[in-house]
Design goal:
- There is one protein chain.
- By secondary structure, the chain is mainly alpha-helical.
- It folds into two domains: 195 residues, Orthogonal Bundle (Hypothetical protein af1432); 79 residues, no CATH class.
- 66% of the residues lie in helices and 0% in strands.
- The radius of gyration is 18 Å and the shape is globular.
- The N and C termini lie far apart (39 Å).
- The model has no long low-confidence stretch (mean pLDDT 88).
- The structure holds fe (ii) ion (2 copies).
- The site of one fe (ii) ion (FE2) has 6 residues, from loops.
């Protein structure tokens, strides 16, 4: 049963000051809107924050960005991967940096592993199935469960009750959150994306990743994130606190024009990919 007190608290999240993204992200966003911007301009802005710059470089060097040759500078990364791939790597680092290290009830390192694995898988699916949403898929993958971190931070006791309910009953965490809190990480995540002024399609992928049949503007993106999430859970990469059944929503499979055979094929490719490239989580080193 959603408690009134919890629902009221959730309302208070909205008026409390949520974490903000580092200013370097918005400066890059703005600069990229100028058609005369060069790779050197963007690299210079990112390099103004050395800790972010070194993590972005580590992230783009992880094989999930499709290059085996070592990228040694941000300028080179932008030239080789393009503005949008680097902006999304920067978004990922910025999102992780916006939140603190967490607590023992909800292992945030495992959580970010899950998010990074979903991001990498979503991008991999987009490339492998030629869906043309590579960079958005990566960003939406990183963000898809972000509402859980907000709930953990701002409604901790209720969120922990939701985790326990999900574990005890084998119920999807978003359902458990709805029962305990009256809203889910999908709702809260979408709100956070809006408050960060991220593109609407990313917020929608966050809002709908557990119910991709309710589609608003970008059905492919929503479906890719949904499928990537289920695959990563099947591959047991990281943990996001969800003890519910692993599902492949019919509407998402239809949207991606896929079925069990293609899913099985992709799962084995992803299993190999992750086994060969444990550097996915290298950006956590030194934290
Ligand atoms: Fe989720
Ligand atoms: Fe997830």
């Amino acid at each position: 049963m959603p408690t009134l007190a919890a629902a009221e608290k959730l309302g208070r999240i909205v008026i409390r000051s949520l974490p903000t993204l580092p200013s370097v992200y918005y400066r890059v966003e703005e600069t990229m809107r100028d058609p005369d911007t060069s790779a050197a301009d963007v690299a210079r802005i990112i390099e103004s924050d050395q800790s972010i710059a070194s993590k972005v470089l580590k992230l783009v060097n992880s094989s999930y960005f499709g290059f085996t040759r070592k990228i040694t500078s941000l300028r080179q990364a932008i030239v080789m991967l393009g503005f949008s791939a680097v902006r999304n790597a920067l978004l990922s680092i910025s999102v992780i940096k916006a939140f603190g290290p967490g607590n023992e009830d909800f292992n945030r390192k495992e959580f970010w592993k899950h998010a990074l694995a979903v991001a990498a898988s979503a991008r991999f699916i987009s490339v492998d199935w030629r869906l043309g949403v590579h960079d958005d898929a990566y960003a939406a993958g990183i963000l898809h469960d972000i509402g859980k971190v907000v709930l953990d931070q701002y409604l901790h006791a209720e969120f922990v009750r939701s985790l326990k309910l999900s574990q005890r009953e084998g119920m999807s965490l978003h359902e458990a959150e709805r029962r305990v809190i009256g809203a889910s990480h999908c709702d809260v995540g979408e709100y956070l994306c809006e408050s960060w002024s991220l593109p609407v399609r990313l917020g929608e992928a966050v809002a709908l990743h557990h119910k991709p049949s309710v589609i608003r503007s970008d059905p492919r993106l929503v479906s890719v994130v949904h499928v990537a999430d289920s695959m990563v859970r099947q591959l047991q990469l990281g943990h996001s606190g969800n003890y519910g059944p692993i599902e492949y929503n019919e509407a998402a499979l239809e949207e991606l024009n896929t079925g069990p055979e293609r899913i099985a094929d992709l799962l084995s490719k992803l299993r190999q990919e992750f086994a060969m490239n444990p550097d996915l989580f290298a950006i956590f080193e030194g934290d």
